[in-house]
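We treat protein structure as text, and this decision shapes the records that our systems exchange. Such a record has a labelled line for the sequence and another for the backbone structure tokens. The record that follows is passed on verbatim for readers who wish to inspect the format:
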Amino acid sequence: MTISPMPELAPGLKQLRLSGILDSLAERNKQAIDKKMSYVDFLALLITDEVARRDHKKYSMRVRRAGFKIGKTLDSFDFDHNPAINRELVTDLASCRFIEEHSPVLIAGPCGTGKSHIAQAIGHSAVQIGYDVAFTTHAKLLGHLHEARATNTYQRRFATYARVDLLIVDDFGLKPMQSPHDEDFHDLVAERYETKSMIVTSNLDFTEWHDAFPNRLLGAATLDRLRHDAYRIVLDGNSFRAPKPMPNRDTKPKQKQ
């Protein structure tokens, strides 16, 4: 029979913002009695549970704020689909050493080769370690900054993107930039340069990234900062989005018995 903890504990734990202990208190209390634990060992169990609960809560919150798409982790990525992918480099980047180095990661390759998945998988690893991460597309990033300028909240929105530990910008150059969007992107890259890390993915070859900028001089200044000390991943091979094969028209459907 489980011995119920003293009900007087609940108000005090809530006042101390330790109400999460109530979730495991009954079980831990029974365990302590059965194993004749000391008071210190019993207290250590409760504190360990509370620390784990808070860590999980923080992790869940960081994942929600990051804006990842569901299921884009390293464990779910099929490296065998395109054996030419530098798996060792991707795994090393997932250690997030590049964040401590304040280095960019640039990923280029055709549509469907796994750029976004790998970028988000590295982002998931960063969240697990404890970094704050923001994932967005290039178009959405520029759109958010443009909307913020119209509502006089530009500085606050810009600061949010500038200060996050890891900013992941997907589909760079999918749509050519227009002024002042190219200026906004340059300012953001310049603000994070050598202080915060970015991951940028693009369908364009690295030699074509300058084509996304209407102002070539501004583009050169932006890309010069992005490329400095950057890790590069080039993806090639078959698309993960290949269509299913068409059914054989000569094959007649089976008749129901």
Summary: The chain has a mean pLDDT of 87. The CA atoms of residues 153 and 204 lie 32 Å apart.
